[in-house]
């Protein structure tokens, strides 16, 4: 159990001072233990900055979840890919763990490091913007790439955008990249729209890879949780962008009626994106479907055709494409300004479910879901994904079950108040463990690894299943000293 004083990173009188929690080793690191580690005094000359001061290190000790705390010994703010390669070679030689940090949007310390932490946001250039692709630094945010592509003539957009677009390209490509507000129905995931990558491996080598060049590295890095390399550049697809959007919101109080209409809408021609929200029963509506059509000015969709045969009447909202794409960013920015959003504890639960069992999952879940399981500023979310459009081996979707669909289900739990809350974190971590075991065993679900579900190396082996031998071989080939991204504990930390 995480004690309150340990969670806050302090110690009782006379005890060793704790400087970080190591979830991969399931233990606390003290100043005494850290003192004997190799020094960064002999680090190579860099174009950017290597920061060793306490303020810089303490600023990156946690992620969005505010559950795990792990202080790095040094922070790299690279000015070039060469900086990253040099420092990985240095860290390998000295047995120092390394983790890249995009926007730190995981919730259980997956991107933290007790060694070197690389702040990828300092590499954020658009190197080339063409009619079908963009080559960008991994630290650029999807929002910035989308704005640059949309400013072209004709207008362009990435074919898949996460709901929150303030995330880095490298960060979401390392986990999969769900179509939160753009993509999913007809596009696949963000990892399905990558043409090529530049990667710095765990040996410090700078490699270009694609489906046709070093394909084993390409497959291991996309959705690979940073285990085999640090993504430094990506060539990603662009597609034509529409000018306007129209969103239809349908509300439901019952699970059966909701899924009946949800399954109708995901197959309805003309709908470009769809997702659903859910809350604890007793609040009306319990479920809300958001179905969106992208269109050009002066050519709106046929409202009657979109809503035909459904059991709920929609509320309709119109927005420009960029206003729609960035709507969740604006909502989060407002929470940051008014509610101290970044200080809340967020023990999120994120899983994939097969199309054949998702309804049974919700019939099982909803009677036990309470308002505390989500929180005033949290969200329950459901994203459909047509399997035919998923082309990469990672992330791991559930076994095929005859359904053309798989669904991401998120219980984005937020604590009752900002600030440390060890008791709430422990309560919800225990809930996540129980719920994931039930999800896996009864409904065939798999983990979408951005949330807060503690996993052992054995859990990871079971998670990857028949893909584990190839993934392990890539790890041994490209990160033979096992220094990269230990936070998730995939290979034992």
UniProtKB/TrEMBL annotation:
Keyword tags: FAD, Flavoprotein, Oxidoreductase
Gene3D superfamilies per UniProt: 3.30.465.10, FAD-linked oxidases, C-terminal domain (3.40.462.10), Uridine Diphospho-n-acetylenolpyruvylglucosamine Reductase, domain 2 (3.30.43.10)
Annotated organism of origin: Streptomyces zingiberis
Cofactor(s) annotated in UniProt: FAD
Alphabetical list of InterPro entries matching this protein: Cytok_DH_C_sf, Cytokinin_DH_FAD/cytokin-bd, FAD-bd_PCMH, FAD-bd_PCMH-like_sf, FAD-bd_PCMH_sub1, FAD-bd_PCMH_sub2, FAD-linked_Oxase-like_C, FAD-linked_Oxidoreductases_BP
Protein name as catalogued: FAD-binding protein
Residue stretches making up the FAD-binding PCMH-type domain: 68-241
PROSITE patterns on file: FAD_PCMH, TAT
Domain of life: Bacteria
